[in-house]
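Incident log, support desk, overnight shift.

02:14 A customer reports that sequence design results differ from what the structure should imply. Their input is reproduced verbatim below. On-call engineer (initials T.W.) acknowledged and began investigating.
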């Protein structure tokens, strides 16, 4: 295999180059821009296969969780190689698995946040001074977008309740993390991913975060067919525990919005263990733990 994706962080330029390389090597994939970040950076989606319904994998909602972007790029390459060569992935014939199926991968929902986490406030242009003031000399921990809004607190699902909890916790405005904005879907990154789901029929969706080695499913006791059984299978093959979020982790997230709007399965997968940002040295092990789950979720 002509290896394109390495076990390393991907800033915006590296992401663009990686996607270009994948497209040159595997011209059967389709790449499109689904929206723009606050800075104008493209939010990129990679579509593989064609189907009446698609599975969606999305990562890097939070800047410091850029390891999820690396993992999704790695899976994209290995899936494409398996489809091109006719080889298997996690012991399964991927041409057979993907027959009549489609996958959309958004490696990085929040490119500005990743850029800040990797390179610091100076990459924020006219917002650099504001970002620097919010960073508290610890830009690696940056989770929000360039305006200081946490994308995974900005979705229209339990947003008002979460907003009130934020204020009770002392979060009243832009911050490195956990500020959900002045209203739901106020941010272009949030709108990009919701517009994608409104454009393509999504069978189920996985949002990747770090860390904890847990899988969250469900929202607001909404009954969703298949979801519990899927969660059990995902937990069994990955070794990740099933859990329920609490406090400021409840509501406002992509998973919550997807379940509320479509009544279809959605999951938050918290990859790896440790302190964000997780080191690149963890990518190989995390990927090994998750690869079978990623494959099976295409078949479910």
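02:41 Re-run completed on a clean worker. Output:
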């Amino acid at each position: 295999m002509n290896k394109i994706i390495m076990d390393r962080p991907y800033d915006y330029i590296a992401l663009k180059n990686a996607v270009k390389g994948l497209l040159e090597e595997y011209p059967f994939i389709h790449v499109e821009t689904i929206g723009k970040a606050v800075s104008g950076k493209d939010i990129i989606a990679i579509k593989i296969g064609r189907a009446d319904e698609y599975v969606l994998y999305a990562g890097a909602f939070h800047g410091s969780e850029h390891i999820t972007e690396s993992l999704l790029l790695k899976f994209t390459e290995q899936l494409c190689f398996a489809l091109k060569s006719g080889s298997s992935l996690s012991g399964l014939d991927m041409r057979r698995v993907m027959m009549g199926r489609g996958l959309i991968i958004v490696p990085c929902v929040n490119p500005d946040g990743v850029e800040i986490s990797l390179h610091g406030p100076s990459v924020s242009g006219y917002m650099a001074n504001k970002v620097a003031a919010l960073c508290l000399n610890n830009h690696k921990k940056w989770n929000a977008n360039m305006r200081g809004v946490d994308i995974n607190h900005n979705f229209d699902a339990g947003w008002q309740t979460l907003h009130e909890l934020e204020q009770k916790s002392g979060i009243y405005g832009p911050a490195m993390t956990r500020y959900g904005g002045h209203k739901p879907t106020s941010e272009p990154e949030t709108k990009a991913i919701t517009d994608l789901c409104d454009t393509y029929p999504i069978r189920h969706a996985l949002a990747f975060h770090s860390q904890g080695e847990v899988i969250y499913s469900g929202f607001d006791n909404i009954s969703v067919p298949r979801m519990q059984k899927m969660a059990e299978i995902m937990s069994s093959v990955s070794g990740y525990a099933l859990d329920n979020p609490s406090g400021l982790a409840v509501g406002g997230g992509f998973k919550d919005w997807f379940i509320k709007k479509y009544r279809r399965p959605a999951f938050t997968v918290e990859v790896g263990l440790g302190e964000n940002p997780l080191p690149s040295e963890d990518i190989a092990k995390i990927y090994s733990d998750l690869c079978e789950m990623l494959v099976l979720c295409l078949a479910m």
